[in-house]
Amino acid sequence: MKNTVDELQHQIQLMLAIFDSISDGVIVADEKGNLTFNQSAERIIGGKVDTVLEQRTEEYSIFYHDKVTPIPTEELPLVRALRGEATDEMEMFIRTAAKPEGVYISANGRPIASPGTTAHGGVIVFRDVTERVRAEEALVRAFAQGRLEVMDTILHNIGNAITSVAIGVGTLQEQLVNDPLIERLSALSKTVEAHEEDWGDYVRHDPQGQQVRPFLLALAADFVEQNRELIRTVERVNSQTSHIVDIVRAQRGFDSKAMTSKDVNLRQAISGALKIVQDSFASRGIQTQVNCDDAPTEIRIQESQFNQMLVNLLKNAMEAIDELKRSGGLKEQPRIEIRAYVQRDFLVLEVQDNGVGIEQKNLKAIFGAGYTTKREGSGLGLHSAANFVTSSGGKIQPLSDGYGTGATMRVELRLNAASAETSA
Question: Which backbone phi and psi does 255 adopt, to 5 degrees?
Answer without folding.
Answer: -90, -15
